[in-house]
Structure formats: structure tokens, C-alpha cells
Amino acid sequence: MQKPKNTAIAFQHVDKWFGNFQALNKINLSVTEGEIVIICGPSGSGKSTLIRCINGLESYDDGQIKVFDTLHMEQPKGTVGMVFQHFNLFPHMTVLDNLTLAPMRTLNLSKQEATARAIHFLNRVKIADQQHKYPIQLSGGQQQRVAIARSLCMKPKIMLFDEPTSALDPEMINEVLDVMTELAQEGMTMICVTHEMGFARKVANRVVFMDQGEIVEVAPPETLFSAPKMARTQLFLNQILAH
């Protein structure tokens, strides 16, 4: 008999306001260890705010978020990794230095240990030959793969992706999605905000549709895409799948 998986992330009645605007409205969502959850919805629906609350990039006003049964702010640094839309690499540092900085400063790894770990993950995302270049010398797809490797260097238990392909040219999108697909297949717990519905069909265990700060519908991708229950979900999918 298989042992039940741990809950990796749990939102309980989470509210978030920006002034008079409610960005998150009574969010309840649990993600189990090893699960791949895709979050989709129109602009301004609260998707990015939701995942930024998990690692403390945004505060929230009410409710509770737990990561592995501990309040999220009490988790050890590096438990949750995040990859952003615009890479957020340090432009004045080489690829290798971008990857070794946090493990040395936060995890107290020696330069030798941090370098070995960085090269391992650069190989993992198939870009080790670029380690001595600066971000400006790389394509967008290469920069995003470096950003993924940088997060992996902290050995996170959970990876968050905030529209990781939306700033990329179309021909570079697949090289990033391929890396994310491999991570999913290896059992990494992942929450990804994206409009890449083909990717969602391929890797997601569940798809969450958000609108106006609320979770409108949650279902496995084959169910959500073929037979959404809510009219708002149907309207959104008709618009996005028509493109």
C-alpha cells in the first residue's frame, strides 16, 4: 500500500488587498508533494500574487499559508525556489557567479562546493558551455534556463514559476518548457502560472482557473479543457485556445 503523500503547500482562507482592490479572495488550495499544479486565468486575476505569497515576496492580510505543515515564513531558506518572467539574473556577474552566490551566502557552501553544484545544474539544463558568459551574451531561452539552474542550486523542495515563457520569443519557449517537463517527471513539486495550455495538458496533475482574485475551478487538465463546469472558465478557455 502506497504511503499518502505529504501536503507541500496549504492555503487557508487567504485574503490579499492592494488598497481598496482585493487581489486574493478567500483562497483555499492544497498542493501535495510531487504534484504539478498549473494556474491560469486572465490578467489581474491574482495568479502571480498567489504564488508570490508562498515565498514571502508578497504579504497577505488574512488566513494562513503553510509549507510542509510549517508557517511558510518559518521555512528554511531555499525550501521554495522561484523562476520569474524576466529572469532576474545579475547582469554584472557571469552565469557561474550568478549560480554560486546564494549557495555560498545563504547555505554557507565553500566556493568549491558551490561551483561543483552550479556546474551540475548547468549540465542539467544543458547550458554548462555558457558558464563564463554574462547574461547579455545569452538568448532569452538560455537566460531562463540559467535562472532555473540558479533556483535548483538551492536544492528547493518546491519550485514556483511565474509565467516563465511569456518574455521569450516563440522559438525559445520549448527549450524552457522541456527543462520544466523533465523536472516534473523527476517528481519536483511545482506550481506554474502560465498560458501554455499544451504544457499544462502534458504535465499538470491539476489546473487551477482564477478570475477576480478567486479560484473559480480546479480539475485535472483533461476535465478542465474538455468539460469545464463554470461559464467563466469556458469563456477564458474559448479565448485562449482559439489563438
Tell me what the structure shows.
The chain has 243 residues and is an alpha/beta fold. Helix content is 36%, strand content 26%. The chain has helices spanning 47-54, 95-106, 111-124, 140-152, 170-185, 197-203, 221-226, 231-241; strands spanning 7-18, 21-32, 36-40, 62-67, 70-71, 80-83, 158-162, 189-193, 206-211, 214-219. β4 and β5 form a beta hairpin. α3 (111-124) packs across α4.
Protein topology:
Layout: E1 7-18, E2 21-32, E3 36-40, H1 47-54, E4 62-67, E5 70-71, E6 80-83, H2 95-106, H3 111-124, H4 140-152, E7 158-162, H5 170-185, E8 189-193, H6 197-203, E9 206-211, E10 214-219, H7 221-226, H8 231-241
Helix pairs in contact: 2-3, 2-4, 3-4, 4-5
- Total helices: the number is 8
Rg measurement, Å: 18 Å
Beta-strand proportion = 25-35%
Q: Using the alpha-carbon principal axes, give the shape.
A: globular
Give the oligomeric state of the chains in this entry, treating copies of one chain as homo and distinct chains as hetero.
single chain
Q: Got a strand count?
A: 10
* Ends apart, CA distance between termini: 44 Å
Low-confidence stretches: none
What profile does the largest beta sheet have?
Answer: 6 strands, mixed
Structural classification: alpha/beta
Q: State the order of secondary-structure elements, H for helix, E for strand.
A: EEEHEEEHHHEHEHEEHH
Strand arrangement in the largest pleated sheet: 6-7-8-3-9-10
How much helical structure, as a percent, in the residues? Answer: 25-40%
Overall pLDDT level: 92
